[in-house]
């Protein structure tokens, strides 16, 4: 492949911006355009449920790069303009105002859209948390001291509950799983996290399904479970997962399944790549398709996409990694700590709330987890997973 | 090259240590970044730039020159 003379990156969050930066770092001197639906300078998402929601950080602190760094990138940054359609063969992106932009290569980095529950649209007081606007609106609402119900027992739901407890709010968390983060870290560590939240005063309704919202004059007043129980609330956060933001790619010619289907080089079609949460790629080491919704993936995959855009032939073979901070606990996982795996403590002691553990499947180590033991977990990753 | 780290933004992922162990380490107690060499030699520049690029907390600042 010859080096493209122009590259258009759709999505200017962590994955898109990192791709642009990596391209320049690798010496790309051609035309570079970043297009994003949001009218904000690129910002980081992990702080949204933690420092920003807690009010510890002003929104500007979550900005990924300062203006000088963005200018040094020598890219055209088009903000507040969503992509609405794509033609993969022509590599032509249509934006919200109907303008069509063509480039020699296109990178898809549109990330995720939060899943919603039936009945939440148009109901005041019900929030999702994906973007900065969501975080700012939720923070303002939480400052009023509402009773909060969080729906969803995954990473985001648990982080929001922890942050809200830190603000002194009355918090109930309802989720279909039987422990917090059961899908991400399995029942044992999930059980420990569940106990942690209970100790910190979160009312838990696990194994519970939401039947619907109860409202009063267009404002939410509670969440009804299928058991009939009513959880009163002036504020509700729906954190029931996300879907790849691929609506604009319908009819583009790309294969869409769970995100944009790519090969092991993150290539979706000739001159078309996908990066970050939206990209489903073939992992040559694990011999399976993966789509990773974590922050590290955004930047790591960007390095590979940038190199391949410039003619390299690098497969993307990451060791998946995510972290979550809840109260005074920092959990880090490397690899795939699946719920089916067998857990064994390798260092430290769970009763002292500081340990690192290995996940094994069929005798093979598939994941490493640190509970307030970040360095040790990383060392275990290097010895057991690399 | 001058390297600056922001401990408040560091999430303890250790990506930087994996890429440039001569320049970065982590504290034993909480995994937060420890800068071993704020002015690394030229042979380490590429690795340090990559570490800054992949840092999930955007906690590493590289001043070139």
TrEMBL record, chain A:
> Superkingdom of this entry's organism?
Bacteria
Q: Which intervals hold domain FAD/NAD(P)-binding?
A: 6-302
| Transmembrane region(s) | none
UniProt name for this protein = NAD(P)/FAD-dependent oxidoreductase
Which key words tag this protein in UniProt?
Answer: FAD, Flavoprotein, Oxidoreductase
| InterPro entries recorded | FAD-oxidoreductase/Apoptosis, FAD/NAD-binding_dom, Reductase_C
Q: Which cofactors, if any, are listed as required?
A: FAD
| Species name | Nonomuraea harbinensis
Q: Where is the Reductase C-terminal domain?
A: 321-382
Automatic annotation (TrEMBL), chain B:
Alphabetically sorted, this entry's keywords are: 3Fe-4S, Electron transport, Iron, Iron-sulfur, Metal-binding, Transport
Q: Which domain of life is it from?
A: Bacteria
Signal peptide position in this chain? none
Pfam families the record matches:
Fer4_13
- Per UniProt, residues of the 4Fe-4S ferredoxin-type domain are 1-29
Q: Which cofactor does it need?
A: [3Fe-4S] cluster
Q: What does this protein do?
A: Ferredoxins are iron-sulfur proteins that transfer electrons in a wide variety of metabolic reactions.
Q: What is this protein called?
A: Ferredoxin
Please tell me the species this chain comes from.
Nonomuraea harbinensis
């Amino acid at each position: 492949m010859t080096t493209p003379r122009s590259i258009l990156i759709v999505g200017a969050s962590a994955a898109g911006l990192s791709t642009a930066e990596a391209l320049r770092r690798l010496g790309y001197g051609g035309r570079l355009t970043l297009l994003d639906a949001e009218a904000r300078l690129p910002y980081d998402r992990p702080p949204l449920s933690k420092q920003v929601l807690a009010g510890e950080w002003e929104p500007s602190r979550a900005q990924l790069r300062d203006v000088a760094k963005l200018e040094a990138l020598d890219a055209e940054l088009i903000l507040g303009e969503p992509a609405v359609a794509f033609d993969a063969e022509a590599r032509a992106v249509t934006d919200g105002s109907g303008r069509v932009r063509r480039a020699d290569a296109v990178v898809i980095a549109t990330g995720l859209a939060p899943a919603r529950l039936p009945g939440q649209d148009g109901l005041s007081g019900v929030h999702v948390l994906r973007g900065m606007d969501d975080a700012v609106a939720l923070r303002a609402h939480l400052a009023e001291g509402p009773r909060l119900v969080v729906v969803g027992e995954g990473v985001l739901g648990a982080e929001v509950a922890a942050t809200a407890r830190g603000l002194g709010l009355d918090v109930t968390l309802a989720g279909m799983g039987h422990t917090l983060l059961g899908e991400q870290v399995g029942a044992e560590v999930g059980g420990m996290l569940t106990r942690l939240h209970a100790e910190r005063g979160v009312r838990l309704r696990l194994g519970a399904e939401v039947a619907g919202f109860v409202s009063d004059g267009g404002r939410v007043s509670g969440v009804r479970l299928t058991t009939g129980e009513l959880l009163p609330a002036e504020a509700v956060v729906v954190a029931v997962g996300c879907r790849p933001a691929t609506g604009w790619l319908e009819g583009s010619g790309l294969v869409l399944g769970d995100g944009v289907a790519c090969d092991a080089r993150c290539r979706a079609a000739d001159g078309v790549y996908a990066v970050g949460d939206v990209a489903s790629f073939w992992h040559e080491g694990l011999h399976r398709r993966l789509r990773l919704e974590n922050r590290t993936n955004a930047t790591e995959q960007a390095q590979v996409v940038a190199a391949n855009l410039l003619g390299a032939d690098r497969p993307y073979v990451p060791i998946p990694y995510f972290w979550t901070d809840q109260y005074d606990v920092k959990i880090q996982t490397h690899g795939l700590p699946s719920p089916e795996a067998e857990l064994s403590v390798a260092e430290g002691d769970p009763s002292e709330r500081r340990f690192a553990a290995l996940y094994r499947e069929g005798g093979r180590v598939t994941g490493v987890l640190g509970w307030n033991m970040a360095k040790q977990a990383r060392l275990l990753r290097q010895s057991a997973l690399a | 090259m001058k390297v600056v780290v922001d401990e408040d933004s560091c999430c303890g992922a250790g990506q930087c240590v994996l890429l440039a162990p001569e320049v970065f380490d982590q504290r034993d107690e909480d995994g937060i970044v420890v800068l071993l060499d704020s002015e690394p030699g030229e042979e380490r520049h590429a690795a340090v730039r990559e570490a800054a690029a992949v840092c999930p907390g955007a906690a590493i600042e590289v001043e070139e020159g």
